[in-house]
Write a structure and sequence with these properties.
This protein has 601 residues and is of the alpha+beta class. It is 56% helix and 11% strand.
């Protein structure tokens, strides 16, 4: 029997006991659904992931895509899994019925994504990039563009990409050089090079729809001059049939540490006459449009990090339960039976660290997905605005905290297996390598720290931080009435207070013009802030778990809820305590890194 890569029980806990997703069915958009429908869809995803995605995870890692100069070759199991994924309707989970979508809440769709990603992140990458690209066209494309490109993407005939970075620019999008020259027929001709383009070339679909950031000559400098274009691999005729090959060419495949199942490419646009592109929306608003996809992608990155961390956790947990080794420190008789690994205190520590990270991270990511649903479908305009503000505040944390600390969970999984964990005979080393991408892409950990401290907590006079703080205080107030949780509620309130003090100090320094110095430790601020948010998510889980524990006599259920309480205790006593030294460092405006001379390294 294969080991599950994510906990079905925890997913149901998050969706139904924490987030009450069934309540969304009272809204017109989701009125055709109910809990049974949601659970059936999750069950289908679990079965398909186990049967078609997980079995070739190691094979696609060991047999990464190759390019023969004409075509990219990928192991056949990838196509088989994606065909089943498309036929089951998962490509259109959030899309409207009128384009054959399933019209599911983002919360349920994200939960399904976590299932597929935990089973095989390389194969799951192709449809999830396509979903993100199709959402951009749905939101900002013309009716003609929706018909020509979005509908075939929802149907799974066309796949999609996002083309931002360039060899010389990386995350510095203001420095991109790809050029789009207007033509008399209303199209544009694009020339330039794009680097790190996941799923940029393959034979898995009839066509590939590239969403490309480029600059129109004569436009504003920097990011204000960036526009967004649809550039298909094959041109599409008015009747929907495919025309000639566009001037988009694969220059080469990047060979990665992990995440090998998804092709990662260097693309040349315009080697000949220029690649034909179609402007999305208005000129010079490309970055705004692309951030629609990037913000969704950032939630997806965080959830992907959780999913890979979860897969490592469950494998190491199973290993620890079944591997006999050693005896307790007071066991002096060498002839006595060995203990299972899980009986050792330090192994429990490693497992608790993983459990606290992945279950806390899952709670945060699905909470963010629920905010997407509130932002899009809440009947009250005030509720929509509140959800939007909270989501804006939390997105850097949702992307970065799991990417950093669920990667650390993968490190702990390797440690549980010891030497075996360091070999390719066991999957935990691949989970680590696959997860190592997440702190890098869709904005590095450091960039997210700059966004959080430099923009998000300061915007609108700190309105987002005030709103978020009020939500956290609602939870701590409730928890103080529970003797089991009062200690944690008090600790979280103290952490929140310190974050407020630190933010004021940094804000005052920035107001004096000391921007570079003030933001020198933005990454530490992100870690500190993220730990407090995960502490909040754990306190909320503990409240629900403790209430449920008193109502059930089923042993398996009691174990599940007790596990939640123990993981909450672990996080507060072993992890949240790190907030204080982090806060002291950031508040001191320490200039060690800022003042270090480049010549002194």
């Amino acid at each position: 029997m294969s080991i599950p890569t994510i906990s079905e029980r925890d997913l149901h806990f998050q969706l139904h006991e924490m987030l009450n997703v069934s309540s969304l069915c009272s809204r017109e958009r989701f009125a055709d659904h109910d809990r049974d429908v949601f659970d059936a869809i999750l069950g289908t995803a679990q079965q398909m992931a186990a049967d078609l995605f997980a079995p070739h995870n190691a094979k696609s890692d060991q047999n990464e895509p190759t390019f023969d100069g004409e075509e990219v070759h990928i192991i056949p199991e990838v196509k088989e899994a994606l065909t089943a994924f498309i036929e089951a309707g998962f490509m259109g989970m959030q899309h409207d019925y009128d384009v054959d979508g399933m019209q599911l809440p983002a919360t349920v769709a994200m939960a399904c994504n976590s299932i597929f990603t935990s089973a095989n992140v390389g194969t799951a990458g192709y449809p999830f990039l396509t979903v993100g690209a199709s959402n951009v066209i749905r939101s900002y494309g013309s009716e003609s563009q929706k018909e020509k490109y979005m509908k075939p993407m929802v149907a799974g005939r066309f796949f999609g990409t996002m083309c931002l970075s360039e060899p010389q620019a990386g995350s510095s999008l203001s420095d991109i050089k790809t050029k789009a020259v207007p033509q008399d027929d209303g199209t544009y001709r694009l020339t330039g090079n794009k680097m790190w383009i996941s799923a940029g070339e393959h034979e898995l679909s009839e066509n590939i729809v590239h969403l490309v950031l480029a600059k129109i000559p004569g436009g504003p400098a920097g990011v204000k001059g960036i526009s967004l274009f649809i550039v298909p691999k094959f041109l599409v005729n008015d009747d929907g049939t495919l025309g000639e090959r566009n001037d988009v060419h694969l220059a080469g495949l990047n060979h990665k540490m992990g995440y090998r199942g998804t092709t990662n490419t260097l693309l040349n646009f315009g080697e000949n006459e220029g690649a034909v592109g179609y402007l999305i929306g208005e000129e010079h608003k490309g970055l705004f449009y692309m951030f629609h996809m990037m913000n969704e992608a950032r939630i997806g990155v965080g959830l992907g990090a959780v999913s890979l961390g979860y897969a490592g956790y469950l494998y190491s947990l199973d290993y620890a339960k079944n591997r006999p080794q050693g005896r307790h420190p007071d066991g002096k008789d060498p002839t006595s039976s060995q203990l299972m690994l899980i009986e050792h205190a330090d192994i429990k520590r490693l497992l608790l660290a993983q459990k606290a990270a992945v279950e806390g991270g899952l709670a945060l990511c699905l909470y963010a997905a629920r905010l997407v649903d509130e932002e899009n479908t809440a009947e009250d305009e005030a509720a929509r605005k509140e959800a939007s503000l909270l989501l804006d505040m939390l997105t850097p944390v949702v992307k970065s905290w799991p990417s950093e600390f669920c990667l650390e969970a993968n490190k702990h999984a390797i440690q549980v297996l010891g030497g075996y964990g360091y070999t390719r005979d066991y999957p935990v080393e691949q989970y680590y390598r696959d997860n190592r991408l997440n702190p890098i892409h869709e904005g590095t950990h450091g960039i997210q720290g700059l966004d959080l401290l430099g923009r998000k907590v300061m915007m609108n006079g700190g309105a987002g931080l005030k709103l978020l703080s009020s939500k956290i205080l609602e939870t701590t107030t409730e928890a103080k009435s529970n003797p089991k949780l009062q200690e944690f509620a008090d600790q979280l309130e103290k952490s929140l207070h310190r974050i407020g003090e630190v933010t004021q100090t940094v804000g005052a320094s920035m107001m004096k013009g000391e921007v570079n110095k003030s933001l020198a430790n933005a990454t530490i601020y992100l870690d500190m802030f993220g730990h407090a948010i995960i502490g909040w998510q754990w306190l909320k889980q503990a409240l629900v778990a403790d209430a449920a524990l008193s109502k059930t006599e089923i042993e398996e259920e009691r174990d599940f809820y007790q596990g939640k309480l123990s993981a909450c205790q672990y996080f507060f006593r072993y992890e949240l305590c790190r907030v204080t030294p982090w806060a002291d460092l950031v508040e001191s405006l320490d200039d060690t890194t800022y003042n270090m001379s480049a010549t002194s390294f």
